[in-house]
Specification:
There is one protein chain. The chain has a domain at 53-109. The protein is mainly α. The protein has helices at residues 3-34, 39-76, 84-108.
Length: 109
């Protein structure tokens, strides 16, 4: 089984799971708004969601940039196979990306 054949079911599962998450979140927001909650509650809910969205973008952006640097490092080393050293470089890059997000997020607050 090649990579393309294996990636199609995985992609389908991820798309279905993400779609369900979006639907459940929208349903919960709608129920809160329909319950005639105070205007302050609705405003707080929407502002909190915007902050979470920005933080998620910052988090994944920092992780992916540093992970891209890790992949570039692997390419510079001209590694042809997945060795424990390559996996260690990519895991370290992912960890550094998370630490970079943590440092940036604490500096922003």
């Amino acid at each position: 089984m090649n990579f393309v054949e294996a990636s199609i079911p995985i992609s389908l599962f991820l798309c279905i799971a993400y779609s369900l998450k979006v639907i459940v979140d929208a349903y919960a927001r709608r129920k809160i708004i329909e319950s005639r909650g105070s205007e302050e509650l609705v405003r707080t809910l929407l502002e909190g969601e915007a902050v979470r969205r920005r933080q998620a973008s910052l988090h994944w952006g920092s992780v992916l940039v540093i992970l891209g640097i890790g992949f570039g490092l692997v390419e510079l080393l001209k590694v042809d196979s997945a060795t424990p050293g390559v996996v260690a470089i990519l895991l370290a890059a992912t960890g550094l990306g998370n630490l970079a997000y943590f440092a940036i997020e604490r500096r922003v607050r």
